[in-house]
Amino acid sequence: MGKLRETLGLSELTERHGNIVWKSLLSEFLGNCILNFFGCAAIVKLGDYPHKNELISLAFGFTVFIIVHTLGHVSGAHVNPAVTAGMLVTGNIPVIRGILYVIAQCLGSITGSALLRAITPDSISSLQFGHSHLNPALKNAFQGMGIELFLGFLLVLTVFGVCDVNRPESKPTGALAIGIAVVVGHFAFMDYTGSSMNPARTFGSAVISGVWDNHWIYWVGPCIGGILAGLLYKHAFAAPATGIMKVTERYIAVAADEKELKRLDGKSREDA
């Protein structure tokens, strides 16, 4: 019974841990609100200037970078049900927290899209507020689902790589790497599916636009990709546990090598 409570995460809802959970949920809500507001704002076209995919791609990537860098210490800054799904199946978060995260993410996305709609002229079509749709050139919805699967896979694999506790050297650039993964995904497949990568982001846009065509692929694809990436990284690519002493020795060795190089460089100058 105790193991079941731990798996479900019932203990996190107690008074002792409840405050931490609510802070995490607020973080996920705010993160997705920011993502839909600023990311989708890059899609809205008010003037006659060319609509460039590069602008939209960078806007989403940099926004994710800011969110992860700012809120990562609070909730892990999943800001994406695909990331939460990957973390859930690998046992990094309990079931109840995972479900609450997805709810908070969806509510945040709706709020962000609604705020963007509220400050934008009524003449702008609601379809321009980040609505994800398939390119008619694709044969069927399953092609789109496959693309979103690979996008979710790339993103979650990156998240697991930079969050590996046995790779402390990856932490300083972790948020940047995640943001770049978002940019790469948009550069590659924005013309195919809109490069959602994020079910909650697409859900918020769908609620505001009222268009739900092929909406299921933006949930199924990224979440399956996220689950596959999480399981693959955990069972095949996770860095071996070295312990605090081994990690310390690694950096001491690097510092010692640098010191020796400086000594040799100084000696060679004296000999010259």
TrEMBL record:
Q: Which domain of life is it from?
A: Eukaryota
Keywords of the record, alphabetical order, are: Membrane, Transmembrane, Transmembrane helix, Transport
Q: Does the keyword Membrane apply?
A: yes
Know the name of this protein?
A: Aquaporin AQPAe.a
Q: Which PANTHER family match?
A: AQUAPORIN TRANSPORTER, MIP17260P
How is this protein situated with respect to the membrane?
A: Multi-pass membrane protein
- Tell me the lineage of the source organism: Eukaryota, Metazoa, Ecdysozoa, Arthropoda, Hexapoda
Task: Write out the annotated subcellular location.
Answer: Membrane
State which residue ranges cross the membrane.
56-79, 99-120, 141-162, 174-192
Family membership, please give it.
Answer: Belongs to the MIP/aquaporin (TC 1.A.8) family.
